[in-house]
Amino acid sequence: MLSASPAFSGFSVDDLEAARGFYVDVLGLDPVDNPMGMLEFQFLHGGRVIIYPKPNHQPATFTVLNFPVDDIDATVDGLSARGVAIERYEGIEQDGKGISRGKAAGMGPDIAWFTDPAGNILSVLST
Fold first, then answer.
1. 37: phi > 0 → left, psi -120 to 50 → alpha, else beta; which?
2. What is the mean pLDDT of each run of 10 residues along the chain (127 residues)?
3. DSSP string spanning 55-105?
4. Closest CA to 103 of 119, 120, 127, 67
5. pLDDT at 39
6. Confidence at residue 16, expressed as pLDDT on a 0 to 100 scale
7. What is the largest CA-CA distance in the chain?
8. Under a CB-based contact definition with an 8 Å cutoff, are residues 111 and 124 in contact?
9. What is the third-level CATH fold of 9-126?
């Protein structure tokens, strides 16, 4: 019934201007015009996300946005150079950069997590 819908994802932040600075200036994303004043980003292959302000925002306790990348080490290095802290999670083995190396162990992609200014969890993962 909904399989042909151009579905998209959205999540909230407590400060839209801080989010804009992070997603545009730090992550290098290009926002598209959104008539409702929200942040909106379109990605290759038709993916789309909207980020909207919510006064009583509570950060998600799970990953809300994943960025597949060709070179996770270079991407993590670049994020770190821009002041982005890579999260470390108890019970998950991560190397010195904070990357969980699942690919070599046959346990999924290599992945590293970080948060936006509102505390939402994002990730970069190997393709």
1. left
2. 87 97 97 92 92 96 96 97 97 95 82 98 95
3. TT----SSEEEEEEES-HHHHHHHHHHTTPPBP--TTS---TTS-EETTTT
4. 127
5. 96
6. 96
7. 46
8. yes
9. 2,3-Dihydroxybiphenyl 1,2-Dioxygenase; domain 1 (3.10.180)
If one counts every other C-beta atom within 10 angstroms of the C-beta of residue 72, the result is 24
Position 114: which residue type? F
The residue ranges of every structural domain in the chain are 9-126
By C-alpha distance, which of 54, 68, 69 is closest to 120? Answer: 54
The pLDDT of residue 71: 97
Q: Find all residues with CB under 8 Å of 124, minimum gap 6, and list them.
A: 66, 67, 68, 69, 72, 75, 76, 79, 111, 112, 114
State the Cα–Cα distance between residues 20 and 4, nearest whole angstrom: 30
Q: Residue 91: which region, alpha, beta or left (left: phi > 0; alpha: psi -120 to 50)?
A: left
